[in-house]
User: What shape does this take?
Amino acid sequence: MDDTSKNKRRIIAVLLVIALAAAAGVIMYVNRTRSYATVTFHMDTYVSYDINCPRPERAVRKMEAAVKECEELFDRFDPSSEIAKINRNAGEAVEVSEQTYVLMFNALELAKQTGGSFDPTIGALSDLWGFGDEPRIPDQDDLAECLADVGFHKVTLSRDEKGGYYVCIAKGQKLDLGAIAKGYTLNEVGFAAYKAGCREGIISLGGNVLLLGSGQDGSGYKVGVRCPDENSNSSALVLKLGDTADDTVLSTSGSYERFFWEDGVRYCHIIDPFTGDCAEKDLKSVTVISSDPRRADGLSTAYYVMGIDRTLDALASGEITGVAIDRYGTIYISEDLMDKVVPDSVAEGYELEVVG
Ligand code: AMP
Ligand code: MG
Assistant: This one.
């Protein structure tokens, strides 16, 4: 081999090494994890993303698309949503997307499990109380009339031979998926995050918080359970959660989220499907912790409705993992959360009690 060909080979080898190094650099750059935080507004609430992964802006775009899709399907105040279409056609089977069908399936399962304390057919009652626009105490006759139409067992789900999905509510019924739609949406957000290669972060949607993976050092995340007082933004208690293989979700239902006062009584947006009443009683908030966002969301609403005795029983028996805060400032936690409480995190004026 003469000198010229040797030199040529050397040059090609050097160029190859440079090209490989550049490619490796690009791959490392693309795969480098970065922290990114942003807030958007959907489903009548703030959605906050605080994530750490490669290409986090792209991951948020994917998660945001999942939120928008759910919002468009489930917002009963938007006439073009599928839930609004079902409500307009009460008494008829309405063809819906697979997502709406699955949401309804999940909602009916939860309604059964909670003996109807969570009931997605409370729509007419919600309208009567006016929590969508102008809250007011309804006329008792109107309330009795609406109450007669509430009942999740009157809803039917069906499929046709072509695989279409149908939902049929009874005449006079109206759906309100407000107590589970955000949980369902967070479930979809979780899938979108994983598909986008995002394994770490906190995504919060209204009173629902999704913890992806187990944090930067694998030991979990510190998450506050909100003080259930009006205008408060501080935590009543801080928990260290998410140190498991599964994602973790916290859902809080509370009287402080949407309410009005009349004659010294606070009326909140969570309605008892058996009485039609929504006056605050002993509980100010219930937080359910689960790996399934739909379950956490639906159950936090259901136990808020069931009240303090039933909620404390559920915390004590291990039926749910969670936190309940009463009107006297006692924070009840299930026994399995005892070692998750961040030391000295209980806010002034509150007292911690472990049940079980
Ligand atoms: P959440 O904040 O998850 O507890 O959901 C509260 C929302 O769910 C309310 O604003 C209503 O839209 C709806 N809702 C109220 N009471 C109930 C109930 N008993 N069962 C199902 N949904 C309810
Ligand atoms: Mg809920």
Q: What stands out?
A: The chain has nine helices and 16 strands. The first strand starts at residue 34 and ends at 42.
